[in-house]
């Protein structure tokens, strides 16, 4: 089972619709010995981060194929894809053996932590690429940069698995919340149920809130404040603490103060769902932008002194060796009632009065939760209805950028925003306000590593940075192009995948 076969499968499915992709790949799995391995590579977000950006990739590839980096830049400008650029590169060392490397070896290299150019990682990458066909290289480089642009994500993989193994998509997604893709596939092939057990250190995809009309709010409710922070999952076992961000990445070292706090909880073990948000000296909520100091700082102890944060618990998945996530929410609350640092909530009374109290206290709004609902891991559920002050709030991706002016002349200062569309991403205008100086430095450092093309002062970048923006309204210009009126950045969403941003249909519905 080789990477070349995988590349041919990817090429054959590249121009298909999502439904056609699911059917085609699902049928093709029969020809692969290790279905789980194939599917675990297909989902780029399933691959471990390799710390390889576009700039470093170009340097490495220029060295591997003994060409000038400017040659790669020229092809990149023409094709807008590094995989295509290398595909069309005139390489004298074209591989004679098109069997190439094995699929397991390919996955290992895709997940290598890319260090210095003279490292063993570079040597392995060089040897592997030189064994591949041009098409094999194209797809390998796309996955190496995590930019395959084929629309395949965790949801697609779940549907492919459901198609091939004749399961319900909901059932597959549940099993994937507790197990790796390969473990689930192996269990299905042996005719057994994959384990759905919570364990310390095993991340569980969080349940997500959804905007729901008031007339569809649950009648049996629990209402929490909506905190303006970042979502985290904290695992505790015998005073040992692990903190996961919303994407499932371990970020324990970013919050030494929260680790100390949670290590003192009087529990044998627990898996807690909650939020960390910045506070002022008087304990009131501070602007969310301050979270960037805690998340991006290299000196976490110093950052903890500069920016104080608060941790609040709004759910519990496991407590003292008992998995409780399948219990109704009101029963979970009863189980966790003795835990400290609970979210501010009500279980009866006037919801809108509580909402106004949350706003007056400096918080974002409220979450109205169905008290009878189990914890639906990985699902955006109508059972958690979020309500914030009426305004247009969107999660968007940065498509391109330009340098600023004046004191911001040395950093990117304005950004073209995009939402998902059937053809990739659709521009909804530019945004240059709402960014702190620290935000602009962070964005400049990130986007410089992901420039795909430069034209007339505009840097077109890979879709890797998600922003939350707010605007007064959606409008169209005289040519009918959609745009946001007075957009401003609320925050950089490091905790969100690009796949989670809003769609063109979402924006059109706001007109």
Quantity of strands, as a count:
19
Mean pLDDT: 90
Using only CA atoms, what is the Rg?
A: 24 Å
The structure class reads: alpha+beta
Number of domains: 3
Unreliable segments (pLDDT under 50, ≥5 consecutive)?
none
| Spatial gap, N to C terminus | 50 Å
- Largest pleated sheet: 7 strands, antiparallel
Q: Determine the number of helices (DSSP H or I, runs of at least 4 residues).
A: 19
From the 3D coordinates, which CATH architecture of the largest domain would you assign? 2-Layer Sandwich
CATH homologous superfamily designation of the largest domain = DNA ligase/mRNA capping enzyme
Shape: globular
Helix content: 25-40%
Description:
The chain contains 19 helices and 19 strands. With 511 residues, it is an alpha+beta fold. It folds into three domains: 3-145, DNA ligase i, domain 1 (Orthogonal Bundle); 208-387, DNA ligase/mRNA capping enzyme (D-amino Acid Aminotransferase, Chain A, domain 1); 392-509, Beta Barrel (OB fold (Dihydrolipoamide Acetyltransferase, E2P)). The N and C termini lie far apart (50 Å).
Primary descriptors:
alpha+beta, DNA ligase i, domain 1, D-amino Acid Aminotransferase, Chain A, domain 1, OB fold (Dihydrolipoamide Acetyltransferase, E2P), 3 domains, 5-stranded mixed beta sheet, 19 strands, globular
Please describe the topology of this protein.
Layout: H1 3-13, H2 18-28, H3 35-42, H4 54-64, H5 69-79, H6 82-87, H7 103-110, H8 120-130, H9 134-144, H10 154-165, H11 169-178, H12 181-189, E1 208-211, E2 221-226, E3 230-237, E4 240-245, H13 256-263, E5 269-279, H14 291-296, H15 300-306, E6 308-319, E7 322-323, H16 329-335, E8 345-346, H17 351-360, E9 365-370, E10 380-387, E11 392-403, E12 412-421, E13 424-431, H18 437-448, E14 451-455, E15 458-461, E16 466-471, E17 473-476, E18 482-485, E19 488-492, H19 504-508
Parallel strand pairs: 1-10
Antiparallel strand pairs: 2-8, 2-9, 3-4, 3-5, 5-6, 6-7, 9-10, 11-12, 11-15, 11-16, 12-13, 14-15, 16-19, 17-18
Helix pairs in contact: 1-9, 2-10, 3-12, 4-5, 10-11
